[in-house]
Amino acid sequence: MSEIIPLRPALPKSDTFWAVFASQGRRTVIANIYATREEAEADRRWREGQVHAYILFLQSEKRNIPEYRIEKIKRSDLPRKWTPLPALGMLRGGSI
């Protein structure tokens, strides 16, 4: 039996958490959020690895290469309709 994954993950219970921010060109969005810095750092490394794996494709498409950083944010700073961002969401015809 396959595991059911919710469309919107449960938020950490505290009022502050670690966010992975994705920047591409002038646009910056919250890619994902975590309860600990270690989880956020692991996600950032994974996202950078995905970008590295597709770097030639991104360059051939003349796309800005996404950059990722980690910051601590408050629950109130999270956009109301926020959802996690796929590492290479721009491959679906858009950008971050």
Protein described:
The protein is of the alpha+beta class. It has a domain at 16-76. The protein has two helices and three strands; from the N terminus they run E-E-H-H-E. The chain has helices at 37-53, 55-60, and strands at residues 16-24, 27-34, 67-74. Strands 2-1-3 form a three-stranded antiparallel sheet, with helices on one face. A hairpin with a 2-residue loop joins strand 1 and strand 2 (27-34). It is elongated, with a radius of gyration of 14 Å. The N and C termini lie far apart (33 Å). The mean pLDDT is 82.
Question: Which characteristics define this entry?
Answer:
96 residues; alpha+beta; 3-stranded antiparallel sheet; 24% helix
Summarize the structure.
By secondary structure, the protein is an alpha+beta fold. The protein contains two helices and three strands. The model has no long low-confidence stretch (mean pLDDT 82).
Itemize the secondary structure elements and their pairings.
Blueprint: E1 16-24, E2 27-34, H1 37-53, H2 55-60, E3 67-74
Antiparallel strand pairs: 1-2, 1-3
Computed Rg? 14 Å
Q: Label the structural class.
A: alpha+beta
Q: How many angstroms does the end-to-end distance come to? A: 33 Å
* Proportion of helical residues: 10-25%
> What is the spatial order of strands in the main beta sheet?
2-1-3
Mean pLDDT: 82
* Proportion of strand residues: 25-35%
Multimer state: single chain
* Strand tally: 3
Helical stretch tally: 2
Query: So what's the overall shape?
Result: elongated
Summarize the main sheet: 3 strands, antiparallel
Order of helices and strands: EEHHE
Low-confidence stretches: none
